[in-house]
Amino acid sequence: MNRRTRTIACEDIATSVADALQYISYYHPPDYIRYLSQAYEREQSPSAKNAIGQILLNSRMAAFGRRPICQDTGLVVVFAKVGMGVRIKSAASFAHLVNEGVRRAYLDPDNPLRPSIVSDPLGRRLNTRDNTPAVVHVELVQGNQIEITIAAKGGGSENKARFTTLNPSASVANWVVDTVSTLGSGWCPPGLISVGIGGSAEKAMLLAKEAMNEPIDMSELLSRGPGNVEEELRIELYERINGLGIGAQGLGGLTTVVDVKVASYPTHVASKPVALIPQCAANRHLTFTLDGKGPAQLQPPDLSQWPQIGPEDLQTTGVRRVNLDGLTREETASWGCGETLLLSGKMLTGRDAAHKRMVDLIDAGKPLPVDLRGRVIYYVGPVRAVRDEVVGPAGPTTSNRLDNFTEKLLAQTGLLAMVGKAERGPAAIASIARYKTPYLVAVGGAAYLISKSIKAARLVAFEDLGMEAIYEFEVQDMPVIMAVDVEGNSIHNSGPIEWRKRMAADSIARNIGV
Ligand SMILES: O=C(O)C[C@H](O)C(=O)O
């Protein structure tokens, strides 16, 4: 190893961070694509297969179009290992240099990313407008280089992070499996579950967060067999989590995780801290090294490794075409759980902040700025449009964050249907059944593909909310799956149960040699 002190220019850090964030906004890691392609081939649940197919097609389109894989372009998380033989030529802090890179990447005019960070999280929750600040972890290590692992972590999967301190004798595997079974699918499976064990509370979380960026190698591990207790746990968790039958987008199916990561660290004799963090289908991370010779040189991945899935492969039989202009309650009542619909016509958008404002207006007895009667609402916060786009990537956001507003909105407005992502909670399902207002899902992680079915976008209300404002979209053949029907039946309840049973029956059949 070269032990001379090396000087690294501040510009190299900012430029490399900006380039890396642009790169991961449109290039999935090839290992994830390889594993997801295998999951697509293997999948037997039609809805889950369709969802994985959409994620793969979206990935290829994003890579060629150099536009974000997902509308949630993430919270930037950096793990920097700074060699003690490095001198950084800068009057500013390391975090400041990273944030300069973040700012440039998110405001890049060719591929603007969605600023999703709010300051004053307890109070006014004001968007910082350039996605700063990043979360930066720095470790001093031997050597004279800086190794930076950078990730853009989606909010939906981050929301499902969990932590516990177990008794030293308790089973980590049981806690992880029980916890994953309660997470629902807002974390956008198929992805990864990463587990950190030991250290202290914050150390366990960091272990899990860092481990999820390691290469995906579950097939290799399964064929060579475990070499230590961490690897034994990885295999057990991989099999048991997939055995839950959650499947892609929680629709029920064979693949919930393509890998499980486990990292551990010595801990107190009385303790067993355990952290769990899911990684969603918008799996975005990259590691690069700076050695004083300029910014990192990032080579595009070999896109021939991306499967050639086209829209024609995603048409399932019996797709129902729906005209949103002139939609009636009789028609929405005929939609059955699990059916694929292609929506055309006008729909409104609205997510967290717009829902809060609308319900505040209802509570204050004031009129809403837009009439929701007879309309369909899509829970989305898109990326800003560029060039000839009418809207940037525009995938669904997690619907159950809006459950608290649902009863009031359905009772007061005459809304006809809702489109979002993942399961609804019991109270929202009861409201859906009470007001006969079904709930549909679009595929989380297929945002660029979905944006291509949006033919026009018009700002309608709450402009100051930025990407959270209410728009009217005109869509053509936007693919969605019926998730909760007007009787309150939910595919997110029935799908996983069905696939869990099928997998259990299959493994019984295998064990008795049928
Ligand atoms: O913020 C979003 O657009 C989506 C969010 O990441 C979510 O998964 O709910």
From TrEMBL:
Subunit structure as annotated in this protein's UniProt entry: Homodimer.
Cofactor: [4Fe-4S] cluster
Assigned protein family: Belongs to the class-I fumarase family.
Domain of life: Bacteria
Listed Pfam families: Fumerase, Fumerase_C
Protein name: Fumarate hydratase class I
Domain Fe-S hydro-lyase tartrate dehydratase beta-type catalytic: 292-494
Reactions this protein catalyses: (S)-malate = fumarate + H2O
Role of this protein: Catalyzes the reversible hydration of fumarate to (S)-malate.
Keyword Lyase tagged: yes
Enzyme Commission code(s) on record: 4.2.1.2
GO molecular function terms attached to this record: 4 iron, 4 sulfur cluster binding; fumarate hydratase activity; metal ion binding
One biological process term in Gene Ontology: generation of precursor metabolites and energy
Keywords from the named record: 4Fe-4S, Iron, Iron-sulfur, Lyase, Metal-binding
Organism: Mesorhizobium helmanticense
Entry-linked Gene3D superfamilies: Fe-S hydro-lyase, tartrate dehydratase beta-type, catalytic domain
Uppermost EC category: lyase
Domain Fe-S hydro-lyase tartrate dehydratase alpha-type catalytic: 16-288
